[in-house]
Structures are given as C-alpha cells and as structure tokens.
C-alpha cells in the first residue's frame, strides 16, 4: 500500500490530468531554493500524478536530494539527482540543468556554495543601496515577510510595494532595481563552460534550461563543444512555435530533448508538478548518455554552413 500523503500538500494537478505512465518531469524546485513546496511534497505530487520519474533541480543546491530520495523510494518513483546552475555566457544569463549528478561531488558543492554566498552578498548590497536612497528596508524585515523564500530582487520589489513605498513591484524595478537603476547589483554567475565541466565531473549531463528565444545557433554549437548534451524543448515559457523550432534544432544538433514544469509554487497556473514532461525515450537517452566530453559528431553537411551558424532560434 502507498504511504499516506499529508493533507497540507497543495501541489495538485487537475483531477483528470494523467501524463503517460513512463513520463518524467525533469525540472522541479523545492523550498531548498525558491520553491514553496518541500522535497517530500513534490515527490508525493509527482507520484500522485503518476509520473515514472522526477528530477529535483533546485537553484545552486543539491541539499533537497537526500530527503527526497528516501520519500521517492517509499512511493516507488525514480528520483533523478539534479541541479540548476546560474551561468553566464557572452554576457547574458543562462541556466544550465545537470541531471544524474552525484550530490556529494566536492567541486560542484564548493562552486554552488560560492553562488549562494554571492546571492546573500547581493541582497545585502541591494538593501544598503535602497537605504542610501532613503527607502525603509532591512534584511530582517524581508526575511520576516518571505520566511520560506530564497530572497532576490523580486522579493525586494514586492516588499517595497507591500509597504507602500512604490505603487507596485514593477515600479520598484523601474525606479530602483531594474538593470541600470541605482539599486541594481550584478548577480554572481558561473561561466557556462565551467558549469558544464562541473556537471560532467559530478557524473551528470548538462542541459540548457528554457533557452532564450533569440539564442543564436552559433552559441548553441559552442556550448555543445563545451559539453552541452541536452536542451529543454518545452516548459511553461514556451510558445508552441518556439517549442517546435527548438525541438527541430535539438534533433539537428543531436541534443537530447527535455521538458519539465519548472514547478515553483501551486499558485502558478499550468505549472503543477508533471504538467510538462519528458517522454520515456528522451529520458533513456539522457540516462545512457556517456560521461565526459561529447563524442557524438555534429552532422558535417548541415552544420558547417555559415547560414546555419548565424541562424537565430527566434
Ligand atoms: Zn531557470
Ligand atoms: Zn528552474
């Protein structure tokens, strides 16, 4: 008999929703980063929807995996060790997922600790700049207002709106927090090549999460040369046409096509655990992908033309 789930769990899919029995949600967050549900809650939600597998991919931490693994074993669902690393490539932010990572790799753990410390320092700098600008805000009050959150700019904006210091969170970005505004502080990011190397060294497979719509194919090819093996082709921010285009590109470049809900909270419509899934064949490709540098050759006929090199995804 299956264990009973706690009544507190509110990660519900519509009652008639049933993904295919062997599908996997490969992109889910928990309270260990910026999600609002605990590792056990997301495991239970995945089991209830009927998924075969679930990857917990918290931002810059693997601390949820140990407890989730035990819960997954109770429910008979596969828990895939994952992470989402905040990276930078050519001056823009990219998110890289690592699947099948070992959660005790010392180099990966150290790099993630640096990123997390950077986040704490960044928040401190933002608060201090806002105070200099005459606003009333303290780290303590932010923590009180969002007790379970990993605090970032969005929370600061929301706090300023709640305390009546701006009319709405968007105004906070326009006036203070947005790029180039006086309380904007750069986020610490890992260089993408280093992130891919860390994921590989930890036994994982690197995937590009929610690729930007204007991502150039040349960039993608360079990331593949660095060791990228997979890419998200569907998720909550994808239009149907974008999803189709990236899927075609993944096929052409030999990338494994992944998808996931990027679940953070039950209140985001259409983003429950298991709302968007990776089919079984792609999960198996991911599982069987060789470790180390990629050995699959890019199709030389299609891929060497300069037109293809400069083609944008969007
Ligand atoms: Zn992301
Ligand atoms: Zn995510």
Describe this structure in words.
The chain has 314 residues and is of the alpha/beta class. It has a domain at 21-104 and 205-313: Metal-dependent hydrolases (TIM Barrel). The protein is 40% helix and 14% strand. The protein is built from twelve helices and eight strands. The protein has helices spanning 39-49, 65-75, 106-132, 139-145, 153-162, 169-177, 192-201, 217-226, 240-253, 280-288, 300-303, 306-310; strands at 24-28, 53-56, 78-89, 92-99, 190-191, 205-208, 230-234, 256-259. The model is unreliable at 1-10 and 293-314 (pLDDT under 50). The protein binds zinc ion (2 copies). One zinc ion is lined by residues 84, 95, 209-210.
Reported for the largest beta sheet, the result is: 8 strands, mixed
Order of helices and strands: EHEHEEHHHHEHEHEHEHHH
- Alpha-beta classification: alpha/beta
CATH superfamily of the domain at 21-104 and 205-313: Metal-dependent hydrolases
* Strand-residue proportion: 5-15%
What are the distinct ligands in this entry?
zinc ion
Arithmetic mean of pLDDT: 87
Query: What is the count of β-strands?
Result: 8
CATH topology of the domain at 21-104 and 205-313: TIM Barrel
Oligomer: single chain
Radius of gyration: 20 Å
* Low-pLDDT sequence parts: 1-10, 293-314
CATH domain class of the domain at 21-104 and 205-313 = Alpha Beta
- Tally of contiguous helical segments: 12
CA distance, first residue to last residue: 49 Å
Q: Which percent bin holds the helix content?
A: 40-55%
Overall shape: it is: globular
The CATH architecture of the domain at 21-104 and 205-313 can be given as Alpha-Beta Barrel
């Amino acid at each position: 008999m299956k264990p009973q789930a706690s009544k507190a769990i509110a990660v519900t899919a519509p009652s008639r929703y049933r993904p295919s029995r062997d599908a996997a949600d490969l992109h889910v967050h928990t309270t260990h980063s910026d999600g609002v549900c605990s590792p056990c809650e997301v495991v239970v939600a995945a089991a209830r929807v009927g998924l075969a597998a679930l990857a917990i991919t918290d931002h810059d931490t693997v601390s949820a995996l140990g407890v989730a693994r035990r819960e997954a074993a109770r429910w008979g669902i596969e828990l895939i060790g994952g992470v989402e690393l905040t990276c930078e490539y050519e001056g823009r932010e990219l998110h890289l997922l690592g699947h099948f990572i070992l959660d005790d790799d010392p180099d990966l753990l150290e790099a993630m600790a640096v990123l997390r410390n950077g986040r704490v320092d960044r928040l401190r700098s933002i608060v201090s700049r806002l105070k200099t600008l005459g606003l009333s805000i303290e780290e303590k009050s932010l923590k009180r207002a969002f007790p379970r959150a990993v605090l970032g700019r969005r929370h600061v904006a929301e706090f300023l709106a709640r305390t009546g210091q701006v009319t709405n969170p968007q105004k906070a970005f326009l006036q203070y927090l947005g790029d180039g505004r006086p309380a904007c502080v750069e986020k610490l990011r890992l260089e993408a090549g280093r992130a891919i190397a860390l994921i590989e060294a930890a036994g994982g497979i690197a995937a590009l999460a929610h690729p930007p719509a204007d991502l150039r194919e040349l960039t993608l090819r360079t990331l593949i040369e660095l060791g990228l093996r997979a890419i998200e082709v569907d998720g909550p921010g994808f239009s149907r046409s974008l999803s189709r285009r990236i899927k075609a590109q993944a096929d052409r470049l030999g990338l494994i096509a992944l998808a996931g809900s990027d679940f953070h909270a039950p209140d985001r419509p259409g983003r429950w655990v298991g709302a968007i899934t990776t089919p079984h064949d792609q999960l198996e490709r991911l599982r069987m992908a060789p470790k180390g540098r990629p050995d699959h050759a890019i199709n030389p006929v299609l891929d060497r033309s300069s037109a293809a090199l400069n083609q944008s995804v969007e």
